[in-house]
C-alpha cells in the first residue's frame, strides 16, 4: 500500500500512515407501494444535489448492515430483498476524497421521510430523474436501468 | 462513522480516529489456455493456505486497476475481460482485521509464476480445490461456481 506522512496534532511528530479509499454503500430503494420508482435524498451538505441514500461503512459492520443502517437513518425505511448491484471506484467520483461505493438494490418498507444528512426526500421514476444529481449517482442509475431492463452488465 | 482513540507513537497523546474496514480486491483468474481452471497462490505470510491473488487497494486507484496490479505482482499475469463478481464483507472473514473484498473474474494472459506475497502458485480445477484455503476464498469460489454454472446469485 502507498504510505504517506501525517503529523501528530499534539507534538507535530511525523507518523507513517497507509492510505486507502474510504468505503461507502448506497442503496437503490424501490418503495413497496411504487416498485418502479426510486427514493432519492437531497443532500444537506456538499456536494449538494439529489443522491442515493447511503454513507460510510463502519469497521465491524458488513456492507449489508451498513446499507440497512444508512437507509433507516436517512429515509426511515426498512429494507427487504437487499441485493448487491455493483461497486464504483473511480478516484474522482467524490470531489472531497477517493471513496469506493458498493451499491445495493432493495424494497423499502414503511413511510419514507428525510432525516439525518437528508434535507429533503423524493420518489422518482427512473425515466425522470432530477437534473441536479450528486457524485456519479446518475450514471449508477443508468447502469442499473440497463441491467434490470435489458440484463446489460456495466463495463 | 465510529470513532476510536489512538495514541501518537512519539508523544503518546490521544487522537480521535474514524475506523473503517480495509479494502481489498481478489481475482478469480482463468488461464487463457485452461479456461475451466483457476489460479491460486500459496500465501507466504499468515493466514497461511491457498488463496485468490489479491491485496489492498491504494487511495487514487480504481478497484479494476488494483486487481490488475495485484494479479501482475503475485502471478506475473496480465488480465483481460475483467468483470466484477461480488463483494464480501463479513467482519470475521480475515482473522487479522476487518477487510472488505471486491472479487473479480478475468482471463490471465502470459506465463503464471509465484512472486511477491505468493510462495507458490497452482492452477486448479474448480471441482478439485486444495484442502487448506485461507480466508473465505473457498466459499467465494463455491458461490462463483453456482453463479457461472447455474446463474444462482449468492444471497
Automatic annotation (TrEMBL), chains A, B:
Belongs to the Nudix hydrolase family. CDD domains: NUDIX_NadM_like. Keywords: Hydrolase. The keyword Iron does not apply. It comes from the Bacteria. GO terms for molecular function: hydrolase activity. Residues 18-146 form the Nudix hydrolase domain. This is 8-oxo-dGTP diphosphatase.
Amino acid at each position: 500500500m502507498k504510505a504517506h506522512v501525517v503529523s501528530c496534532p499534539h507534538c507535530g511528530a511525523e507518523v507513517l500512515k497507509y492510505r486507502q479509499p474510504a468505503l461507502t454503500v448506497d442503496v437503490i430503494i424501490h418503495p413497496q407501494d411504487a416498485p418502479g420508482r426510486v427514493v432519492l435524498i437531497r443532500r444537506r451538505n456538499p456536494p449538494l444535489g439529489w443522491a442515493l441514500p447511503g454513507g460510510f461503512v463502519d469497521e465491524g459492520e458488513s456492507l449489508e448492515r451498513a446499507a440497512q443502517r444508512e437507509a433507516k437513518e436517512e429515509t426511515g425505511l426498512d429494507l427487504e430483498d437487499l441485493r448487491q448491484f455493483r461497486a464504483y471506484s473511480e478516484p474522482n467520483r467524490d470531489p472531497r476524497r477517493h471513496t469506493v461505493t458498493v451499491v445495493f438494490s432493495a424494497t423499502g418498507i414503511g413511510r419514507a421521510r428525510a432525516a439525518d444528512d437528508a434535507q429533503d426526500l423524493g420518489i422518482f421514476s427512473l425515466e425522470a430523474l432530477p437534473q441536479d444529481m450528486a457524485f456519479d449517482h446518475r450514471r449508477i442509475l443508468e447502469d442499473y436501468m440497463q441491467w434490470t431492463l435489458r440484463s446489460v452488465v456495466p463495463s
